[in-house]
């Protein structure tokens, strides 16, 4: 079993979650910005609906989720 602790990591600017290097990104890791196609498709949207803020992230930021 391999440990993934040594893999590079980035923070997704949409969902603010960390994501790790994947083999499919090995040729263009420097240009990868989003953790998933869902985040890539929602990158510029501003939600005006109801939102809830989840407290208690390790990095001190708060995450906003739609309900």
Fold topology:
Elements: E1 9-11, E2 18-20, H1 37-41, E3 51-54, E4 63-66
Antiparallel strand pairs: 1-2, 3-4
Description:
It holds the Pfam family DUF2256. Residues 56-67 have a biased composition (Basic and acidic residues). Residues 43-67 are annotated as: Disordered. The chain has 67 residues and is mostly beta strands. The chain has one domain (9-66). It has one helix at residues 37-41, and strands at 9-11, 18-20, 51-54, 63-66. The strands form 2 sheets. The chain has a two-stranded antiparallel sheet. Strands 3-4 form a two-stranded antiparallel ribbon. A hairpin with a 6-residue loop joins strand 1 (9-11) and strand 2. The longest helix is centred in the middle third of the chain and has 5 residues, at 37-41. Residues 47-54 have low confidence and may be disordered.
In terms of structural class, how would the helical and strand content be classed? mainly beta
Distance between the termini: 38 Å
Mean pLDDT: 77
| Strand content bin | 15-25%
Shape: globular
Strand order of the largest sheet: 1-2
Q: How many runs of DSSP E, i.e. beta strands?
A: 4
Largest sheet: 2 strands, antiparallel
Domain count, please report it. 1
Order of helices and strands: EEHEE
Count of alpha and pi helical runs: 1
The value of Rg in angstroms is 14 Å
Q: Detail the poorly predicted runs.
A: 47-54
Helix content range of the residues, please? Answer: under 10%
Protein name: DUF2256 domain-containing protein
Pfam family, one: DUF2256
Region (Disordered): 43-67
Biased composition (Basic and acidic residues): 56-67
